[in-house]
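Q: Given only this backbone (280 positions), what sequence would you predict?
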């Protein structure tokens, strides 16, 4: 299967590269705003250097592809509408239009938990301080974006559904509401807390540190679980549109993974609760 991966060298894209690049089922084309230097990490891969806001560039990159994993976009919740408009609104439209005209079978769209972020905002920090969350959010619950970023990803989900239900291609689209995928050195429930210590924001063992750990024990999706979810999305033949929560099988998560289990056979291997300290 020929697969175009946009936004290839971020946290989520590199998880796919690390776990799926050598799989015989896939032949990846990597698209990013920049090409890593030779000798740098991920610098050995051929790269299409392009902006997803450039419709012609996305069309060209999608030629002869069977599927697209669309990760590229502005990823921060403090962004303005101007920040998200070109990369997240226009870029997603360009990606889906390329999938339609180039007749790609499958699109996997990187959505975000921030599509539902107001549920957390209203209930934090109590939401993740207990051993189990008081509720489970599913794809059937109303969206409640917490930012322009969340709004842009909610739009992307709707656009995916629109294309699947109104055009011959793509045949299927999967939106993953990604929770917390991190780079390899922080790929554990203590990752955000340790990053804060290194930045000088607080000390290890402080209230702020422990709160970050508690949140990540709920929100963490390990890099291998994320790549596994991508693999399951690419392997299914079922047509249509669906939404999945991108999170590992954490005891205290408040995002349900039952739809992903039942629909694409998602079988996560990791649980944040099994960690009681950061790696040495």
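A: Predicted residues:
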């Amino acid at each position: 299967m020929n697969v175009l991966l946009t936004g290839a060298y971020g946290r989520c894209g590199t998880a796919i590269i690390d776990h799926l690049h050598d799989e015989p089922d896939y032949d990846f084309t990597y698209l990013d705003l920049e090409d890593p230097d030779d000798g740098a990490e991920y610098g050995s891969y051929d790269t299409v250097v392009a902006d997803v806001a450039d419709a012609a560039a996305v069309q060209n990159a999608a030629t002869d592809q069977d599927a697209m994993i669309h990760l590229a976009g502005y990823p921060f919740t403090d962004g303005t509408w101007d920040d998200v408009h070109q990369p997240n609104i226009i870029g997603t439209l360009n990606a889906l239009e390329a999938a339609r005209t180039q007749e790609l079978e499958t699109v996997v769209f990187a959505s975000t938990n921030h599509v539902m972020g107001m549920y957390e905002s209203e209930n934090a920090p109590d939401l993740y301080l207990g051993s189990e969350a008081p509720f489970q959010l599913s794809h059937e619950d109303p969206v409640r974006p917490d930012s322009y970023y969340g709004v842009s990803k909610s739009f992307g989900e709707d656009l995916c559904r629109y294309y699947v239900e109104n055009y011959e291609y793509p045949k299927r689209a999967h939106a993953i509401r990604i929770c917390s995928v991190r780079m390899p050195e922080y790929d554990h429930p203590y990752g955000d807390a340790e990053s804060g210590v290194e930045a000088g924001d607080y000390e290890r063992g402080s209230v702020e540190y422990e709160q970050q750990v508690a949140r990540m024990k709920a929100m963490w999706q390990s890099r291998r679980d994320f790549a596994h979810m991508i693999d399951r999305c690419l392997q299914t033949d079922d047509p249509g549109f669906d939404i999945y929560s991108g999170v590992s099988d954490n005891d205290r998560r408040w995002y349900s993974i039952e739809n992903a289990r039942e629909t694409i056979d998602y079988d996560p291997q990791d649980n944040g609760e099994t960690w009681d300290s950061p790696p040495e």
